[in-house]
Design brief:
The protein has about 70 residues and is of the alpha+beta class. The protein has 2 helices and 2 strands. The chain has a two-stranded antiparallel sheet with strand order 1-2.
Length: about 70
């Protein structure tokens, strides 16, 4: 069960980006070990199934999103 990791990442994002909406598993049954973060335009910021291969460590996800945001 990856619920604790999801909740931890959700809190981090909500604290870092006020007004953000974080949704879990909006596309049906979850895939074991899947953890992906995209925006409403489909930009992929994190994929445990892809190159990242794991859940983000504290701060990693926020830093990655900030680095890819327009200045």
């Amino acid at each position: 069960d990856y619920t604790p990791q999801f909740k931890k990442s959700k809190r981090e994002l909500e604290n870092s980006f006020p007004g953000i909406i974080v949704e879990g598993n909006t596309h049906g049954s979850p895939q074991e070990g899947a953890f992906e973060v995209t925006d409403d335009k489909g930009t992929l910021y994190w994929s445990a199934l892809g190159d990242d291969g794991c859940f983000p460590k504290p701060g990693q996800l926020t830093e990655r999103i900030k680095a890819r945001m327009p200045k």
